[in-house]
């Protein structure tokens, strides 16, 4: 047997062995065994996270962006308006983070010199 064929067969056998070891690990991870989603043997389901976050409606008219964010949940939400301008020389902007308290609505606005390419609002929970 020539050395090249022997080396090829060894590489093939090694790759089959690695695949045989990797498949059970992938199935184990896919079932969520390590994610903590299974119950702890007490029969209780894990607690569901409390809903949070503001509902935002954003409109673009010409070079101006306006977004209204309302927080219907009992926790404070920090919202931030991001504006991407169409022209390469026009500066994109990230507005300051604004706290939206429970039951409140805030108005966020920004503008470009010319056209607006995109605008979106990011959310994060307020520090306690």
Summarize the topology:
Layout lengths: L2 H28 L24 E7 L2 E7 L6 E9 L7 E2 L3 E3 L4 E7 L4 E10 L3
Antiparallel strand pairs: 1-2, 2-6, 3-4, 3-5, 3-7
Explain what this protein looks like in three dimensions:
The protein is α+β, with helices and mostly antiparallel strands. It has 1 helix and 7 strands. It has one helix at residues 3-30, and strands at 55-61, 64-70, 77-85, 93-94, 98-100, 105-111, 116-125. The strands form 2 sheets. Strands 3, 4, 5 and 7 form a 4-stranded antiparallel beta sheet that branches. It has a 3-stranded antiparallel beta sheet with strand order 1-2-6, with no helix packed on it. Strand 3 (77-85) and strand 4 form a beta hairpin. It starts with a helix and ends with a strand. The mean pLDDT is 81.
What are the main properties of this structure?
flat
Compute the number of helices.
1
Strand content: 35-45%
Number of extended strands: 7
Query: SSE string, helix = H, strand = E?
Result: HEEEEEEE
Distance between the termini: 71 Å
- Chain-averaged pLDDT: 81
Radius of gyration: 26 Å
**Secondary-structure-derived class:** alpha+beta
Low-confidence stretches: none
Helix amount, in percent?
10-25%
Largest sheet: 4 strands, antiparallel
Give the overall silhouette. Answer: flat
Short description:
This protein is an alpha+beta fold and 128 residues long.
């Amino acid at each position: 047997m020539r050395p090249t064929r022997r080396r090829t067969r060894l590489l093939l056998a090694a790759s089959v062995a690695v695949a045989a070891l990797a498949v059970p690990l992938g199935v184990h991870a896919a079932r969520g065994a390590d994610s903590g989603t299974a119950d702890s043997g007490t029969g209780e389901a894990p607690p569901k996270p409390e809903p949070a976050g503001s509902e935002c409606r954003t409109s673009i008219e010409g070079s101006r962006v306006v977004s209204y964010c309302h927080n219907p949940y009992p926790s404070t939400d920090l919202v931030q308006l991001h504006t991407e301008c169409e022209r390469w020389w026009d500066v994109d902007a990230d507005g300051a983070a604004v706290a939206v308290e429970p039951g409140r609505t805030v108005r966020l606005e920004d503008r470009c010199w010319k056209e607006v390419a995109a605008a979106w609002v990011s959310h994060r929970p307020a520090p306690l």
